[in-house]
Amino acid sequence: MRIGVYGGSFNPPHTGHVLAAAELIEKLSLDRLLIVPAADPPHKSLALGSPGPYDRLALCTTAFFRVPKARVCDLELRREGKSYTVDTLAELTEANPGDEFFLVMGTDMFLSFPTWREPERIAALAALAVVHRGESAGIWNRVLEEAEALRERMRARIVTVDNECVPISSTMVRRMLAFGAPDCLDPAVLELIRQNGWYLTGDQLKQLPYEALREVSLALHDEKRRAHADGTAETAFALAERWGADPETARRAGILHDITKALTEAEQLRLCREYGMSPTEFQYENPKLLHAVTGAAVAERIFGESEDVVSAIRWHTTGRAEMSLLEKILYIADYMEPNRDFPGVELLRELVWQDLDAAIFRGLEQSVRHVRAKGCVLDPDSEKAWHYYQKLTERSIEP
Ligand code: FE
Ligand code: FE
Q: Are 228 and 325 in contact (CB under 8 A)?
């Protein structure tokens, strides 16, 4: 028998995994494909809201149910302590003498293969099946070079498989689950997730205390945007104290303002559809603006935030004429929080303590210049805001 071994955290198992499994079975002419969910990594915790290992196993059983030759296998969960691929393969080959094994791995795993525990022994126990998921030619060439080197050095048998499926990441699937617009999941898997409230589904994100709100918010952000979210929250808090808004509310708006920024354009539009909102033509053409619209909707529907917070998030990117105090605070906090660095930011940071409207105008003017320099069309709301705050401040500001 030809047996494939497909490991991963499957957190959660999505249609990308299922399509890949079917494709692997076909392309490697497998008689069986073992789906091997990984035990919880000992030192790093899984994403917030993730179910435990046996629940992920149950999700896998449901997800791969329709792939005839796939079998979900609890080998890595049963083992005590840290689980190594080499042990899994040793156990499998011992139990199935005479069968031929194929260890499935992505390009990133393959490129780090020599650093795994006992790579030579792994290579002796199984052929390595490297899956190409549309990586760049540069990376793929490195894979081919490394494959040549490993064939020579440890007589590894290496096959490559082109995976024609659209790449789907579990991170993205988890985000869309939390935002109440799940995608790329088998309906039975989705039902199991919802019944148990895994992956932050259900009503559990409504009106969280600030520390919990921050934890969830940062978990849903891209790594690179976490410092900006925190910086904006703390700046908004301080500005609210200075200008007489509620600091707690300002901080909530700050930590949530870019909550949907990590979504792709397609996912932004999917959220709009799911929530029954239609983006304007201008937003369609400038999808970067969509995160303010979807972010406000998520703050309202998923986090149950107040109207103040929702409108501040709605207008944080473009601004508008006659902004509320909280809208102004969030707009400018986003612009000048400590992680921002552009010519003039220091001046803006000083000005904002003396004259909030003047700072708003400076911010708007800078954005207008920036947009025009790029040869882009100015957002109509920004344009109105710019004129409005220009008029409001022209008495107190030198041109
Ligand atoms: Fe933003
Ligand atoms: Fe921002």
A: no
Examine the fold and report which residue of 145, 168, 191 is the final residue of a domain before the chain moves on.
168
CA–centroid distance, residue 333 to ligand 2 (Å): 9
Ligand closest to Cα of 291 equals 1
CATH of the domain at 304: 1.10.3210.10
Q: How far is the CA of 335 from the centre of ligand 1 (A)?
A: 9
For position 144, which CATH number holds? Answer: 3.40.50.620
Residue 326 in this model has a pLDDT that exceeds 60: yes
Within the chain, residue ranges assigned H as helices are 15-27, 53-63, 75-78, 85-95, 107-111, 119-125, 137-154, 170-178, 187-196, 210-220, 226-243, 247-256, 265-274, 281-285, 290-301, 307-314, 325-336, 345-354, 356-373, 380-393
Span from the CA of 334 to the centroid of ligand 2 (angstroms): 5
- 135 CA distance to ligand 1 middle (Å): 29
Distance 92 CA to ligand 2 centre (A): 50
Query: What's the gap in Å between 109 CA and the centre of ligand 2?
Result: 33
Closest ligand to C-alpha of residue 339 is 2
Same domain, 129 and 237: no
Interval 108-160: pLDDT, tens: 899 999 999 999 999 999 999 999 887 888 999 999 999 999 999 999 999 99
- Tell whether 137 and 14 lie within a shared domain: yes
Q: Separation of 126 CA from ligand 1 center, angstroms? A: 48
Shared domain for 303 and 211, answered yes or no, is: yes
How many distinct structural domains can be found in the chain?
Answer: 2
